[in-house]
Amino acid sequence: MEHDPAYDFDTVVGIRGTGSFQWDVLPELYGEPDLVPFTISDMDFPLAPEVLDAVRRRVERGVFGYTDWRHTGFPEAVRDWYARRHGVDVDPAALVFAPSVVSQLAQLLRMWTEPGDGVVVHTPTYDGFLKALDAHGRRLRGVPVGDTDALERELARPDSRMLLLCSPHNPTGRVWTEAELAAFAALAERYGVAVVSDEIHADLTHEGHRHVPWPAVAPHGSRWALVSSGSKAFNFPALNAAYGIVGDPDDHAEFERRVERAEGLNSPSALGLAAHTAAYRHGAPWLDGLLPYVRGNLLLLADRLEGAFPGRALYAPPQAGYLAWLDLRPLGVDDEAFGEELVAREKVAVRPGAVYGAKGFVRINLGCPRSKAAHGVDAVVRTLARMAV
């Protein structure tokens, strides 16, 4: 499927000089001012025109006083988006609001677990999970993606208190099937484990796959929360806006009490709310254009790798998202050495698999114009050709 020509994803936008972590901070860390990054998981595309117009209109109001997210049309926009996009009924009264997905996770860790408790996570693992668990003194119980026996074994441990699910999975891009999710839910209920499902990549699911939100499989009366944000699919993480759905009404009330009273986060980003509401009301055509465009970048990498290393099974395009998960082990290439060589010789940066607990892999962000993607893909293939055993 070709991308919608009504939207321009090819134009390169100057991002340097904006305080961008990817474009300004990482080059400083590497000591390479002209570094081309394929690292942090945000995209190089401007906001959808429909979203940018809504943000501009909100700015033009000129007044940014304390704001209540419940009175902005945001809850209803979320409800309607989930009904149209995912076929799931969401009660606006079950929503909570927070600055980010990880801040919600941190709150739920404090609510539902104690220091020293085990938290079960599929590995390799999003590094934000690793940092949050470490900072809160919780024990990571890693389970290889696809290993159901290991999942049950870890959930059955007496000190396991939470299943922290990434759905779709980061960094592999795996979209869990409804049957897989139902099996996870049954195991969590059997062993009395709470579930937190991070679904921030849900709206980046590619054609041929279907994302199933956790509320569609959660057993009645079980303890669970879905945490998400439109910021990943629509590319506005700096607007500091995320939301969640907390299944149990008492847990919902406690979450709100902690966020709004204990932490004083009772007036969210007005621009984040405006962006979210516009994205969920009017952004579907842009997103439908973005997905095949990004898919083209991912397929470009697949084609170039197969051409250079036929039959080596280094990479399969993800089922969701714009992050390529590349296995260097068949070539005998160390991920950290590869990253260093890539920076030194090509002035290109990627993320080593060690960041996610998986030596021998790299993660490559291809959420960018085709010209940048081609530049990075060529650099990756050249470097692998030099280093392959």
Could you explain how this protein is built, in words?
This protein is of the alpha/beta class and about 400 residues long. The protein is about 40% helix and about 15% strand. The protein has helices spanning about 20-30, 50-60, 75-85, 100-110, 125-135, 150-155, 180-190, 230-235, 250-260, 270-280, 285-310, 335-345, 370-385, and strands at about 35, 95-100, 120-125, 140-145, 160-165, 195-200, 225-230, 240-245, 325, 350, 350, 360-365. The strands form 3 sheets. A 7-stranded mixed beta sheet has the order 2-8-7-6-5-3-4, with helices on both faces. The longest helix has 25 residues, at about 285-310.
Sheet with the most strands? Answer: 7 strands, mixed
Classification by helices and strands: alpha/beta
What is the count of helical runs?
13
Mean pLDDT: 95
Shape, principal axes of CA atoms: globular
Rounded to the nearest angstrom, the radius of gyration is 21 Å
Helix content: 40-55%
Give the number of DSSP strands. Answer: 12
How far from one another are the termini?
37 Å
Portion in beta strands:
5-15%
Strand order in the largest sheet: 2-8-7-6-5-3-4
Succession of helices and strands: HEHHEHEHEHEHEEHEHHHEHEEEH
Considering the chains and any ligands shown, give keywords for the structure:
389 residues, alpha/beta, seven-stranded mixed sheet, three-stranded antiparallel sheet, 13 helices, globular
